[in-house]
Amino acid sequence: MEESYLALGREILTKGHEKTDRTGTGTKSLFGYQMRFDLSKGFPLLTTKRVPFSLVKSELLWFLKGDTNIKYLIENNNHIWDEWAFERYVKSEDYKGPDMTDFGRRCLVDDAFNEVYQKETTLFIENILHDDEFAKKYGELGNIYGSQWRRWKTSTGDTIDQLRDVIDMIRTTPDSRRLIVSAWNPEDVPSMALPPCHTLFQFYVADGKLSCQLYQRSADVFLGVPFNIASYALLTHLIAHETNLEVGEFVHTLGDAHLYSNHIEQMTEQLSRKQRELPTLWLNKEKQSVFDFDMDDIKIEGYQPHPSIKAPIAV
């Protein structure tokens, strides 16, 4: 199954179009690509580099809670959303520290600035953890995934719990073609720290198996996509468990699939490595609802990947 991902990396390196992007980093990009993963053959956590599963599951649990504040993530030693919240803070009137303009790029090319940046982000994280008012104001990322999944706003001021509704539909009308959860709400896009990259997912039930297809508008192939694959595979397992179904396929459809220019060497290194046996997923079967699971209720077993490959995130 991992070959589907590696084939994507190879194709971008050989056929990708040179494009500019919002971050100013530059990418090699393809448009419209699909990967398929048979979840009955192993859990698709990449083995050609280590993917930290603890971050995958804490982020997904964060989404499932409907949470949009990074405090929960930081409490679980997950810092993958820190930069987005920090960017909002340093652009606010309350920030009085050193100039942080274009910090994502500058910290990579200026060692002196990086020292200042690290001090400011450490202080920011401490404030999120220990100052409730600060966390409420600057840990908040807007109406991102968790909000759209669990509290979609209607014109009447009510909210829709899309995820709970789709789970009920899987139970009662499994052949429905409307088993869909959308994170892309045009009204909320301007207020989001990062408009949803994984915009819509749909479930499909056949032969007692639950499959899921994700449409992802923007796909950071080296850093983001391995997380996305594991996250939606885990989501499919959790919902299959709650609805008494086996797992089928995870189908990953990508819009703009890109490698950042400063990820080319890392992708090339990963492609040189041999695949290893995929791990398996363990779930605490005493928990029934996806909304009841905690970190200790989800584990990965038999994971023996190659070492991690570090790469900068483009903010």
From TrEMBL:
It is an enzyme of class 2 (transferase). One of its GO terms (molecular function) is thymidylate synthase activity. Pathway: Pyrimidine metabolism; dTTP biosynthesis. The active site is at 197, 197 (nucleophile). DUMP binds at residues 22, 177-178, 217-220, 228, 258-260. Residues 4-315 form the Thymidylate synthase/dCMP hydroxymethylase domain. Keywords: Cytoplasm, Methyltransferase, Nucleotide biosynthesis, Transferase. Gene3D superfamilies: Thymidylate synthase/dCMP hydroxymethylase domain. (6R)-5,10-methylene-5,6,7,8-tetrahydrofolate binds at residues 220, 314. One of its GO terms (cellular component) is cytosol. Its main location: cytoplasm. It is found in: Cytoplasm. Its EC number is 2.1.1.45. InterPro entries: Thymidate_synth/dCMP_Mease (IPR045097), Thymidate_synth/dCMP_Mease_dom (IPR023451), Thymidate_synth/dCMP_Mease_sf (IPR036926), Thymidylate_synthase (IPR000398), Thymidylate_synthase_AS (IPR020940). It catalyses: dUMP + (6R)-5,10-methylene-5,6,7,8-tetrahydrofolate = 7,8-dihydrofolate + dTMP. One of its GO terms (biological process) is dTTP biosynthetic process. PANTHER family: THYMIDYLATE SYNTHASE (PTHR11548:SF9), THYMIDYLATE SYNTHASE 1 (PTHR11548). HAMAP family: Thymidy_synth_bact (MF_00008). Homodimer. Catalyzes the reductive methylation of 2'-deoxyuridine-5'-monophosphate (dUMP) to 2'-deoxythymidine-5'-monophosphate (dTMP) while utilizing 5,10-methylenetetrahydrofolate (mTHF) as the methyl donor and reductant in the reaction, yielding dihydrofolate (DHF) as a by-product. This enzymatic reaction provides an intracellular de novo source of dTMP, an essential precursor for DNA biosynthesis. Belongs to the thymidylate synthase family. Bacterial-type ThyA subfamily. This is Thymidylate synthase.
